[in-house]
Every structure is written in structure tokens, then in C-alpha cells.
Amino acid sequence: MTDTQADEIDFSIMYATHRAFRRDLQRLAAAAQAGRGRAPQALAGWENFSRQLHHHHSVEDAALWPQVEAKIAGRPDAQQLMKDMEAEHAELGPRIDTVEAALHSADPDLGAKIEDLYQVMDNHFRHEEDSALPLIQEVLTPAEWRKFGLANARKFGLKGVANYVPWVLDGSTPAQEREFLGAFPPPVRVANKLFWQRSYAKKGLWQS
């Protein structure tokens, strides 16, 4: 391994988390199309999705973007990118509320509102993956990235981590599972295999 490779940040967890968010909204859209958008399993899946998304973005706002902003003084393009990330987070809130209201009413436009949320979320993730992650790779060290990861874990707490890990893995391919779990220390992988996966499966999220 070269020194450059050793200093690279591993974004496996970030990419896997984005994939899980996209997966859940696709599942919600499919449930709505099949007339099951208001079924208990779909509502439970949506509740978990919205809670995970709020957590994900609130930790980025509190523990990731400030670290980046501290490194980009005198770089107006990078500073604008950080403003874009904040604005895109803000765009999601009202759309989540709109889908939430539609799920608990007889709104005939539920499918369209889910699609609108998906497009805004997906555009944000693409922007983050294409522009913000390369900037993070440039200006942060792996130790600073781990600081963000630790802040994420502290905010989750053990119970939250025990739900987050199998949630991300839900529906993953074996290769995706190996890549995601490989970014965690062995105790996390063992706990997920022995306890967390089973507990998550019992919730029956999205099952018809």
C-alpha cells in the first residue's frame, strides 16, 4: 500500500447508507402503487426511513460539514458547495412532511409525492457523492473522518447502531455486505451476525 492509498478515506459506509435510503423509497413507491402504502409494514418502514434520514443529515450538519468548512477558507467554490449541501438538506424536510401527511390520509397523489421526494433526495446524494465526497477526500484526514463516524455512533447509541447496521444491509448483495461490514471493527460484525440481524428481521419492515 502506498502512502497516498493509506491516507485515503473509505466512503463505503456513506455509499451503503445512501443506497439504503434509495432502496426504502423505492419500496414505499412500490407499496403505494400496489395499494399497500398505508399498510402497517409499509408505515413502519417509512417511519424507520424518515428517522434514519433525519439522523444522517443532522450528524452531517453538526459533525462533518463544520470540519470541512474549517479547511476551505479562501475557496469560494468549495464554500458554495457547503451552502448547497445545507440548502439541499433543507429542501428535503418539507417533502418528508408532505409524504408523511399523504400516508396518513386518502391522498390520491401519494405516489407522485413519493417520487418528488425520491428525486430531490437522489439529486442531493448524487451531488454529495460527485462533489462533496471528493472535497472531503482532499481536505480531511482519515482521523478527521473517523471523528465524524464516532459522532454518528454516539448520537445513535448502541440501540440505534443495532438497528442501523442490519437496516443498511437489508437486501444487499454478498459483495455489498462484505464491503459495508468490512468498514466496521470485528465486534460490530459479530454482534450483527449473532443478534442484530435477527432482531431487525422480526420487525418485518416492508413485508407484504
Short overview:
With about 210 residues, this protein is mainly alpha-helical. The chain has helices at about 5, 10-35, 40-70, 75-105, 110-140, 140-170, 175-180, 185-205.
Structure description:
- The protein has 8 helices and no strands.
- The chain is mostly helical and 208 residues long.
- It is globular.
Overall average pLDDT: 95
Please report the number of helical segments: 8
Runs with pLDDT <50, length 5+? 1-5
Question: Structural class per helix/strand content?
Answer: mainly alpha
Secondary-structure map:
Layout: H1 3-6, H2 12-33, H3 40-69, H4 76-103, H5 110-139, H6 142-169, H7 174-181, H8 186-203
Helix pairs in contact: 2-3, 2-5, 3-4, 3-6, 4-5, 6-8
Question: Which labels suit this protein?
Answer:
208 residues, 8 helices, globular, mainly alpha
